[in-house]
Amino acid sequence: MSTCRVHSVRFYDLEPRAIHCMAYESTQRKLAVSRSDSSIEVWDLAHTPHIERTIPGRVNSSVEAITWCGERLFSAGLQGTITEYNLQTLSYKFDIPVTAGPCWCLESNCSNTRLAAGTEDGYINIFTVTNDGLMYEKILDRQEGRILCLAWDATGDVIITGSADAVRIWNVDSGHAIHRMTPGRDERKKETIIWCLAVIKDFTIISGDSRGCITFWDGNTGTQIESFQTHKADILCLCLAEDENSVYCAGVDPLIISFTKVWLRGGTGTSSCGRSKWVKSVQRRIHDHDVRALALADGKLLSAGVDSYLAISSYPPRQLVKYPPLLQAPSVSVCPEARCIMLRYLSHLEVWQLGNTAPIENGDEIHEGILPLIEDPIRLLTLKSRGGDAIVCADMSSNGKWIAYSSVTTLCFFSFQLGSKPSLQKAPVLCEVSSAHRITFTSDSTRAIVSTSTGDIVVIQLGGDELVLEHVFHPLDDRLLKDAVHLLTVSHDGQFIVAGDHCSNIIVWTTADWKHHCSLPRYSCVPTALSVHPRTNVLVIVYSDHKVVEYSLCGRKYTTFSRGLEGRHPVQWLSRGFAVNSVTFDPNNEDIIMLQDDNTICIIDKDKELPLAEAKIPRVGSPQSLSDSLDSSQCHPRTTTPQHAFHVIKKYKHLVHVDWLSGDELIAVEVNPLALAEKLPASLKEKRFGVM
């Protein structure tokens, strides 16, 4: 890789968005995550965890509970409705009101045929899940006080609810409460709130409450088995292992504690006379703030809460990966001709003019380290969405003269004039396109390629201040794609348009005759990033298992390098915990491919020999960056002259985007983790030994 200047952009100031609840669907291996802005992220956990799709939140709404019914996703919130989502269009299918008031909890039974919702006024609403929606079935007897949590038993005939000072067991058919169990109080006038519940097949009920106690109940007799004071504050969430032999709990006190079922001497797990007991087991401190959601997926613990990070941990072996609260890529647009970048936030866009530095070479000397700034970066524009709607996607043309963004309902184009007094003018609306999932401009800034929410690929011609609809592809109708487009790019010469969906279909069209050019062989994993080489028109694709392939668009076949790489990826590369977000190429060397994830830039030099599969991938960089790196040299041995095709640059945290501005200027956009931490509320205060 050639020597270059790197613009380390650290003014991308995202807000942390707390995670309120999670729901895992084991068949698809999908995780639904609800955040404080009422948006829902669907994560694909089949291979490397990554955000598959994001459903934007609605203004003045909340999501307090989410649940899967097969492949269908439902939520409930304080607006007093149950919502089903269209995962292909990333919109809302319907809202059904509940009786009565805000809805705090929502659960489906084991057969996914019924939904139960608990409300502020103490009603349990039962709905039947039909093919085209939900059908109201009944409400159970009203109880005093709000219902904060509920759970179905294994038969689907009984519901357990938690509220202030009570755990109740309900017969769904009769609508009456069978048992009422009281957890007790720490203070006489302070009620104990049941925040979370779980039910085992033998009808043991597990509850977590505001005293910091986890309690085990016998649901058959309505009596308490045992209780443990595990936390110093409220237990907000708990989750049960698939084999039902262990349970995890956490809350305002973020310590995650597990309990394991053991069989006492004289009995076994299969013996009718054996007696079991729950004992405290492993504990983990992963978060510093409230933990609001726990889930288990394939033996790994998923935890999240106020700090906005999704943590995936396991023990044994002891592993931990924390995924930061970044927006789904792409969220940064680089404009090489205008020397600008556009940053996408939740409901607004920012355009920045990049600064300038002294040259790298001063006579015969090459400067290493931080170059002094000659010009500071300047914020040119802040563009807010209409009504504060969440922005789904956005892009800016290479010459900086066009800006486009889409919310759930509206696609907007703007003509932008740079200069000492920047000006912005909205272009006339195209009636044919209501909203979009992805937008990209051609390198000559004459066309915009838009993937619409209905699944079409629209080509818009940009002329003066007008927009002209040039062509429309219908990949869903033509059965070329099966799901929403999440990857969209166009070749540098504007000859090829490439789109990829969540079902691993990658399709190429030509702009010369507007026809289908080719479909790539379908792989078992989802592509997470793709890009076309600006000189050779070679398409590079990275999948969620980190497999890298190279496909010649002109030759309609895999390249020699790609065939040689098949089955020879380094094991260390395949085992990385972060998915690749972007692919770019060295403008000075056709053989260099650059892959970027959350904290690493991986360099692949096709001109060099591939390493052995078990070989460690070396880490390269200047002596300063090598000495300052916190990464263990045992994981990535240090080197300044890599001998093999794979090597990495590890000097970033929360790396959002990497791209070239010119032949000797690279842009690396980061989100500062300390800036995220500074915006978090105060955590639980704990007395530590030797500290006042």
UniProtKB/TrEMBL annotation:
Database matches in InterPro entries: Beta-prop_IP5PC_F (IPR056454), Quinoprotein_ADH-like_sf (IPR011047), UTP4 (IPR046351), WD40/YVTN_repeat-like_dom_sf (IPR015943), WD40_repeat_dom_sf (IPR036322), WD40_rpt (IPR001680)
GO CC field: 90S preribosome; small-subunit processome; t-UTP complex
BP GO annotations: maturation of SSU-rRNA from tricistronic rRNA transcript (SSU-rRNA, 5.8S rRNA, LSU-rRNA)
Domain IP5PC-F beta-propeller: 160-242
An example molecular function term from Gene Ontology annotations: RNA binding
Superkingdom classification of source: Eukaryota
Name the UniProt record assigns to this protein: Cirhin
Native species: Zootermopsis nevadensis (Dampwood termite)
Lineage: Eukaryota, Metazoa, Ecdysozoa, Arthropoda, Hexapoda
